[in-house]
Design goal:
Layout: H1 2-14, H2 16-32, H3 37-69
Transmembrane segments: 45-65
Keywords: Membrane, Signal, Transmembrane, Transmembrane helix
Signal peptide: 1-21
């Protein structure tokens, strides 16, 4: 397991252009659009992706609180 993780990390550091390729494409699309609809959609997607872990952790803490309380 550690060997696979090490191999993945080495490949990511060896080929950084592959890792950042999609980010550059998204940035080019967002910058080329004049209306800003795509940028707003990407920003909303980021917010939703960022919110999910917080909701899961809050649910976990609520579950633990209910178990400890009674």
């Amino acid at each position: 397991m550690k060997a696979k993780l090490l191999l993945i990390l080495v490949l990511l550091f060896a080929f950084p252009s592959i890792v950042e390729a999609q980010c550059a494409m998204c940035r080019a699309v967002v910058e080329s659009e004049a209306e800003g609809g795509t940028a707003e959609g990407i920003n909303n997607g980021i917010v939703y992706l960022m919110a999910v872990p917080y909701v899961l952790i809050a649910g976990l803490f609520y579950f633990i609180y209910r178990k400890m309380r009674g």
